[in-house]
Amino acid sequence: MKLDTVIAERKNKKIYKDGDLVAKVFDESFPKSDILNEALNQARVEETGLNIPKIEEVTKIDGKWAIISTYIEGKTLAQLMEENPNKMDEYLELFVNIQIDILSKKAPLLNKLQDKMSRKISETDLDATTRYELQTRLNGMPKHTKVCHGDFNPSNVIITPDGTPYVLDWSHATQGNGAADAARTYLLFRLDKKDDLAEKYIKLFCEKTDTARQYVDQWLPIVAASQSVKGKPEEREFLLSWVNVCDYQ
Question: Is the pTM of this model over 0.70?
Fold first, then answer.
């Protein structure tokens, strides 16, 4: 592949386009196990029949690990929302419908969300009492086996020119409770300072899935704790306020 056209750049990785393919190239500091796990997640989600880019190859380019996938032509839902604010309600409905479709799928070999959340809570620098309360809450939550994206936000949804939605970035995918995935999406909107959109989103999600808002709220401290492990200083104070937002009695 020719690495001439950069289409996105993230911390520790660059994404290049070459014809009908995309190469996500990781720098040397990125753990090999995480790269291979991301490729495996994507391959497993492919088998559910969801519209996602197909894995073509996992390889090394100039000594760096790379995941090669099919290129999906189109605009992200985030771009479309920015360009057409008058269509926000229509786009938000599409966004929630896509998430519900994802949650309707099963992928029995994906890692379990419950295990991942438990590990993340252990990795935080929260005090022992708070970690214990979070683990207790997590252990008491219903255990489901729905496909959960783990980073579902409008920038990870591509709409092709013919209107077909595709979902990108399955590195955080797990199987578990859909309300946890909704809680994370809500927090991502809040972290992006889109509070009104966050409220509209969670109201619509709860209406469409017949889920009590209080049930999603039960997941917020757990999800906020797991998000804080990413170590972004600008997010820390906000996330920690959510870790302690609920009464543990």
Answer: yes
